[in-house]
């Protein structure tokens, strides 16, 4: 049996002053996930997450504002048969921050009560969103 192909990404657990977590839905996708994506060649995980957050949500944050949360693995939501390995970082922002940009079709701020009714990527549901309210 061959192992599933691995996709490496950087992901941001962005929370606001009201304790909500930011999730985004890419164009053509049916589930929401944390802002983030694949690092460019030569780019560190934290550089990638800062760039991706800016490109996807318009939120500008220095790399020093991101707090490392660890590395998490789950089934990839948008690449069937793949496994995603995410270097996760926390970022706190003001309420009302961000708007959909780039490849993002929709942006939502959710609380723990909305998790059950929001279509979420496995990595977000199982690992990253619980970190937002830990």
TrEMBL record:
Domain of life: Bacteria
Protein name: NUDIX domain-containing protein
Domain Nudix hydrolase, residue spans: 4-133
The entry's keywords: Hydrolase
SUPFAM superfamilies: Nudix
Family as reported in the entry's similarity comment: Belongs to the Nudix hydrolase family.
Keyword Mitochondrion: no
Pfam families: NUDIX
Classification via InterPro entries: Nudix_hydrolase, NUDIX_hydrolase-like_dom_sf, NUDIX_hydrolase_CS, NUDIX_hydrolase_dom
């Amino acid at each position: 049996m061959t192992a599933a192909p691995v996709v490496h990404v950087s992901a941001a657990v962005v929370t606001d002053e009201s304790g909500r977590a930011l999730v985004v839905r890419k164009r053509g996708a049916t589930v929401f996930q944390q802002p983030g994506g694949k690092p460019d060649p030569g780019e560190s995980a934290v550089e990638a997450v800062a760039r991706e957050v800016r490109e996807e949500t318009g939120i500008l944050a220095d790399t020093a504002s991101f707090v490392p949360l660890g590395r998490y693995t789950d089934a990839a939501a948008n690449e069937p048969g793949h496994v995603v390995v995410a270097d996760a970082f926390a970022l706190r922002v003001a309420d009302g921050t961000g708007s959909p940009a780039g490849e993002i079709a929709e942006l939502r701020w959710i609380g723990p009560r909305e998790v059950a009714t929001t279509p979420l990527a496995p990595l977000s549901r199982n690992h990253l969103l619980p970190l937002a309210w830990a």
